Amino acid sequence: MTTENISHIFKIDNRRQFENTDRSEQFIYTNELLQDTQTKFSAVEQSPFEEVAAIVPNTDDETMECSTFRSWTIGLLFTIIISIVNQFFFFRLNPLTIGSIIVQVLSLPLGKIMARFLPAKYIRIWKWQFSLNPGPFNTKEHTLITVMANTAYVGQYAMNVIVVYRIHYRQTMNHAIAIFFLISSQVIGYGLAGMTLLKSLLIHNLRFSTL
Predict the structure, then answer these.
(1) pLDDT tens column, 164-187
(2) What is the model's pLDDT at position 9?
(3) What pTM value is reported for the model?
(4) How far apart are alpha carbons 75 and 104 in whole angstroms?
(5) From the centroid of its chain, how far is CA 189?
(6) Euclidean distance between CA atoms 73 and 84, whole angstroms
(7) How far apart (Å, rounded) are the C-alpha atoms in residues 203 and 198?
(8) Is 1 exposed, middle or buried (0-12, 13-18, 19+ CB in 10 A)?
(9) Which one, 51, 107, 131, 181, has least CB within 10 Å?
(10) DSSP state of 129
């Protein structure tokens, strides 16, 4: 091998090394690494069904607001209605049940109407402020309303204790005691999860990262 061939090979290697370095710097400074990671994550999270993939985005739009005046108003309204109606007809022979799907269907036009007619006015409460109409009614608000209605749709097993205590034992329970009894039965799971002994197993367990 001659000296000219050796020098030619070194020139080619230096050129390739310079091109690779230039590409890596360009790859880093243009934030393509993050974009490539997000693209791979989006591809994994994409639904295999074409109908779902066409209408449900697999990326998060941070500009959308979910905790708005509309979502809390509509969500609390349906929560109160569902809990009263379902509990009232629970002891009937043919009970009338309002599911979360009905709320999901009815809350969409209500949200659109509120977005159309509510003024874009800010209300201040101490240090916080919120807008009555922050913009168009979005998917996150609709989802939050559905989640709130779904919590009211499921009945409480502690209510059976109160009913049996009144019907079979002919005794009445104080309203405050009954309310706190219902609340305590619903949040006992959160209390167990927050205990020091179970926190390492239920919350900080690396084997179950989805928890």
Answers:
(1) 888 888 888 888 998 898 888 888
(2) 47
(3) 0.63
(4) 10
(5) 19
(6) 17
(7) 8
(8) exposed
(9) 51
(10) E
